[in-house]
Amino acid sequence: MAAPSSDSIPSVNKAWIYSDYGNSSDILKLDPNVPVPQPRDDQVLIKVVAASINPIDFKRMHGLLKAVDDLPIVPGWDVAGVVVKVGSQVKKFKVGDEVYGDINETGTVKPEKFGTLAEYTAASEKVLALKPKNLSFVEAASLPLAMETAYEGLERGELAPGKSVLVLGGAGGVGTHIIQLAKHVFGASKVAATASTAKLDLLRSLGADLAIDYKKENVEDVPEKFDVIFDTAKLTKL
After folding, report:
1. What is the pTM of this model?
2. Which H or E run contains 78?
3. Tell me, what DSSP letter sits at residue 150?
4. Superfamily assignment of 12-139 in CATH?
5. Sheet holding 164-168, edge to edge
6. Model confidence pLDDT, tens digit, residues 68-86
7. Residue 4: its pLDDT value, please?
8. SS3 of 79, please?
């Protein structure tokens, strides 16, 4: 995808934005005249090709981060797009690079006011990576926050080679990443995961050694013991 020249970057763009907290159907509006963010010296400006929504966007819209937020807000954390402008201190990227990432460098501590549900967004170069050529923009935009959640959770759980892990909710956005990371990056000796009947083959294809049908089997009755349990569904008390 060709990047527009700096002369063709508009001063305003379309963006989803909200100025109050509540249900998205009540507060989220598509505004065609939102100023295009100006990148800081360590940031790049991205022409957004794809963006994704995560549970944190929904929770934030309902006021979860009210203590640190500054309305109005353009939601969205994940992005994939093309660099159209670079700050003076940027070293990793140039205009025309296809990039992806989670633009919120500080997570929920102080999330970005201007997110990714817009035609343009700005992000620090340290939170971005070049988009793999074998991924579409849509595929790339679906990865960052879910992958970060999976990886950080396994680190906090101290999963290491030779240890086993049970993933509750293995067929979801985070769960599918946990299975693959546990098996192929963290070196787990055994990966078990739960899902509905129709998704058991998906779990196995991702690397799960044991696929548990939660509709037919109570996970608490599984005889195996696991070193780490990663609950993505928040539905089971063990």
Report:
1. 0.88
2. strand 78-86
3. H
4. Medium-chain alcohol dehydrogenases, catalytic domain (3.90.180.10)
5. 210-213, 190-195, 164-168, 228-231
6. 999 999 999 999 999 999 9
7. 63
8. strand
CATH 3.40.50.300 fits 158-231, yes or no: no
The Cα–Cα gap between 37 and 121 comes to: 6
d(CA 197, CA 211): 9
* Span(s) in the chain for CATH 3.40.50.720: 158-231
Domain with CATH 3.90.180.10 in the chain: 12-139
CB 83 within 8 A of CB 3: yes
Name all contacts of 127-132 with Cβ < 8 Å and 24+ positions apart: 127/101, 127/102, 127/103, 128/44, 128/92, 128/93, 128/99, 128/100, 128/101, 128/103, 129/99, 129/100, 129/101, 130/93, 130/97, 130/98, 130/99, 131/80, 131/98, 131/99, 131/100
